[in-house]
Amino acid sequence: MKTIKENWKLVLIVAAGIVAVIFMCIFGIQGAQNKAFALEEQVNTADSDIKVQEKRRVDLVYNLADCVKQYDKHEAETLTAIVEGREKATSIENVTTAIAAVTEAYPELKSNENYKELMNELSITENLIAEYRENYNKQIKEYNRYVRKFPTRFFLNILGYETQQYQYLDYGAPVDAPQNLFGD
Length: 184
Known about the structure:
Number of helices: 5
Strand content: under 5%
Oligomer: single chain
Distance between the termini: 99 Å
Radius of gyration: 34 Å
Helix content: over 70%
Shape: rod-shaped
Largest sheet: none
């Protein structure tokens, strides 16, 4: 008993050292888990970005295809009106007047611009999807590298963190892919 009273400072230092080591382990494990949380969220965000762009692609195809169909219908009606105006007109002046009236009513006929816009938007969307897929795979690589790194892999394996799989392109068309875009 006398030795403990004499060495109470040493006992206190040893106890403080043990408590410090325990806290360092706890904070180290929690820090590793927090980084794993952050990396996992980056992977989930990258996956969500891909899904948003794929949804945009489907919406874009339907909306632009409808726009092009409507404009094609408008252009066909206009050209039909011009042809009918020519047939009804008996003189060159009447034909010119009929064409001028239709031209004033429908100033621009340019459905090919709508097709170009459709193709341009689809190209931009496909490029964005490719970029987001690349980012997703990059985030998975970073996450997997961290989860497998020593010494965090021991703690993270116990906590249930596993490596994730890369996303590979699936060239099969989905069941709900747009069909008959320019049909009736």
